[in-house]
Specification:
- The chain is α+β, with helices and mostly antiparallel strands.
- Helix content is 39%, strand content 11%.
- The longest helix has 56 residues, at 592-647.
- Keywords: SH3 domain.
């Protein structure tokens, strides 16, 4: 069915977040803030806090009681399959409704359908039909192509009250600290609304955007010519206040980059202590800006040292960055922030792992053509004064969510979309990202086995070294993993005839040939110990970095799921806006206003798909290249050590070995207790979207609970609590 623009509901009872004062609404719901027209959402948003204490959610399953208020006639906009156990209704698009209680809490309304059944329905899934007659209908037919604005403002000018921009749920963050509940849900929340709703795209498509300052409809969503979009002179002439909130789409569609790419390093972590927050880790964040371009590169001219800015940031500051970005850029896909750790967060391994995660996170942000010039990013990376940064942080958190204003400030070429192409591309994109995620998960598992195989190879090389040294020194190995148990009872008198006085592996005294052979084989044994160390170090450091890097490409569909939902819903609204037909007694004409706004959203989502394409090529190229470089460097080191051992058997080095007696190897002391059981390999920290099988902490918790319940140790009867009670 064709969908009419919905009337804008009054939000006089909602508070608006302004940068100058902290008037944000409070809530116990651990969700982020976004935009919809219902003011019920604003009554259940919590204030941002950097405290480690997460408030418990209120009872979400209370049954709302009907109150005495006028019954409003309404019509369902979309299909909704409610859950009977939560007293939710199942309605179809176009069904006639009676609104018994509009504000039932948390964005729900108490509704009666034509069959007489009463239940809950989301406020954004219906529109009141009493305002249909006052809504202006667009002219029949489509406008001719033009570079001027094709989104008339008439449908918005009839509103007597300006639209208030109020915080609302974006489905990922409100409390900056992720909870245990979010960990169990793999970084997801229980928000049932799609990204089309939570990003503000739905409100933009249905109602447009009214500037809260001027109380007039915004015309900044207008389509512009391709030449104007890509003309730097034309764009730079409009630079000024608020330019960071203006986003341009070139032909493609693809985001137009305002700021050249730069690199950000997170390094030099140090432990600090504060009287208020206790101990924490501080990281140095350095931005590197290169003035040279690829065209000006000359291999004979020394490279110019890039300009750099270094600031000090802690993990809670990254939370401020992420929270502000999700509110100000609801139309783009942002990487998830690493989860907060409460135990072992000052261990050297964890600090290094966290440093790498934060570097990948901020690196992904600054690689995005839109996110890297956001005001919050420039403040985060450029504010070197700690006092100024502490003053800026509350202002960043108190900025109102962008919602539909984000799409209102997207400029794109005129008539650059085809509906059939837009419908087909989202299906291919969804299938591709799902396949990439599944294959990458398998690749991560295989790479973990490869690292374990390298560790086993290290143990094998070390065992070979011990065995070779035991052979030429006649010192038996105490035990070996192959089940070969040597007799350790030999005494120096019993070893007479195994080694001569010069330590050569011979029963003859003064045998020069055996002395040279013994010393050359001992050097070979020492070289194999170094090779074993190289295998161990390669698996623990170089391959760990590659294993960890796979997280950045492991879950593309989960990352872009909101973009996919927004695109699919917008395509559906776009088709409705172009249709002719009837809904009940009302005639619906083609709606050019809504079609224009749909094209703006589709330009945004397709530009995000283009960004993923570019980043996928860059990410996998970088990971593969760094893996090959690491393997080449590793094998070159192994080859160097093996060649050095091989040269020992060639003249003149082999002949020089007979000039002095053999000195004991430093590894001989290990023959009585071979070091063949290295500590386990360090594993990458789990990704926010990882399943339970890839999150080792879940296994530990499961074993701990099993021990308490008596299920973790077969053969032992009774639980741990039961045995303690019995004792």
């Amino acid at each position: 069915m064709a969908t009419l623009p919905r009337p804008i509901k009054s939000t006089s009872d909602s508070s608006i977040v302004e940068s100058g004062n902290d008037t944000r609404p409070r809530s116990d719901t651990p969700f982020d803030a976004g935009i919809i027209s219902s003011s019920a959402w604003t009554e259940h948003l919590e204030c941002y806090s950097l405290s480690d204490d997460e408030p418990e959610p209120a009872d979400e399953h209370h049954e709302p009681q009907p109150v005495e208020e006028p019954v409003k006639a309404a019509r369902a906009l979309y299909n909704f399959e409610g859950k009977a156990e939560f007293k939710e209704l199942a309605v179809g698009a176009g069904d006639e409704l009676n609104i018994l209680k509009e504000e039932a809490g948390d964005g729900w309304s108490l509704v009666r359908v034509s069959s007489g059944e009463i239940g809950l329905l989301p406020q954004t899934y219906y529109t009141c039909t009493t305002s249909f007659l006052s809504a202006p209908l667009a002219a029949h037919g489509r406008n001719e192509p033009s570079t001027s604005t094709i989104t008339p403002k008439a449908s918005l000018q009839h509103q007597s009250k300006p639209l208030s921009i109020v915080p609302q749920d974006t489905g990922e963050w409100t409390n900056p600290l992720p909870s245990f509940r979010q960990s169990l849900l793999r970084g997801k929340t229980l928000n049932r609304f799609s990204g089309f709703v939570t990003s503000g795209a739905e409100e933009w498509v249905l109602e447009g955007y009214v500037d809260p300052v001027t109380s007039s409809p915004s015309s900044s969503h207008q389509r512009i010519s391709t030449e104007d979009s890509i003309n730097d002179d034309n764009r730079l002439s409009r630079l000024g206040l608020g330019e960071a909130d203006r986003h341009y789409v070139d032909a493609g569609p693809a985001w137009q980059s305002k700021v050249p790419k730069f690199r950000v390093l997170v390094h030099s972590p140090s432990k600090r202590t504060s009287g208020l927050s206790g101990a924490y880790t501080m990281y140095s964040v350095t931005s590197l800006f290169s003035s040279a371009t690829d065209e000006s590169y000359d291999p004979y001219i020394p490279p110019i040292s890039p300009a750099r800015i270094t600031v000090q940031r802690r993990f809670s500051h990254f939370i401020v960055l992420h929270t502000s970005l999700t509110r100000r850029l609801p139309g783009i896909a942002l990487p998830p922030l690493p989860e907060k750790q409460y135990a072992g967060r000052f261990s050297a391994d964890f600090v290094e792992a966290r440093r790498g995660e934060l570097e990948r996170y901020i690196g992904c942000i600054v690689r995005h053509p839109v996110a890297r010039y956001a005001e919050v990013v420039t403040s985060f990376l450029g504010c070197e004064n700690d006092a100024d940064w502490k003053r800026i942080m509350p202002q960043l958190l108190s900025m109102p969510a962008a919602g539909p204003s984000f799409f209102a400030h997207v400029f794109h070429p005129a008539f650059n979309l085809d509906l059939d192409d837009a419908t087909e591309v989202i299906d291919r994109f969804s299938r591709h990202t799902l396949a990439v995620g599944k294959s990458t998960q398998s690749l991560r598992n295989v790479f973990g086995h490869i690292r374990e195989a390298r560790l086993e190879m290290s143990k094998a090389e070390r065992l070979l070294s011990y065995s070779l040294l035991s052979l030429v020194t006649s010192i038996p190995l105490s035990s070996t993993p192959l089940g070969i148990n040597e007799d350790p009872g030999d005494t120096p008198q019993q070893r007479n005839g195994l080694l001569n006085e010069e330590g050569a592996w011979c029963w003859r005294e003064g045998c020069q040939d055996c002395l040279k052979l013994t010393k050359a084989m001992q050097k070979t044994s020492d070289g194999l110990q170094i090779v074993a160390d190289l295998y161990d170090d390669h698996a623990r450091r170089t391959q760990l970095a590659t294993h960890d890097a796979f997280k950045s490409v492991a879950h593309p569909y989960q990352l872009y799921e909101g973009i996919v939902e927004t695109h699919q819903s917008t395509v559906s609204r776009y088709k409705d806006a172009l249709k002719l037909g009837k809904v009940g007694t009302f005639t619906i004409f083609s709606n050019d206003e809504m079609a224009a706004r749909c094209e703006t959203v589709l330009n945004t989502t397709m530009a995000e798909m283009d960004t993923y394409h570019d980043q996928k090529v860059e990410n996998f190229s970088t990971i593969t290249r760094e893996h090959l470089d690491g393997e080449i460097h590793f094998y070159e080191q192994v080859l160097h050590k093996l060649k050095a051992a091989r040269r020992t058997f060639d003249a003149p080095r082999f002949d020089e070995l007979s000039r002095s007696p053999r000195q004991p190897s430093r590894y001989e002391r290990d023959l009585e207790a071979p070091k063949l059981n290295p500590p386990p390999l360090p594993q990458p920290c789990p990704h926010v979207y990882d399943s339970a099988s890839m999150r080792p902490v879940n296994t530990v918790i499961h074993k701990g609970i099993g021990a308490l319940l008596g299920k973790s140790q077969p053969g032992r009867k009774g639980s741990l609590l039961g045995r303690i009670w019995a004792e």
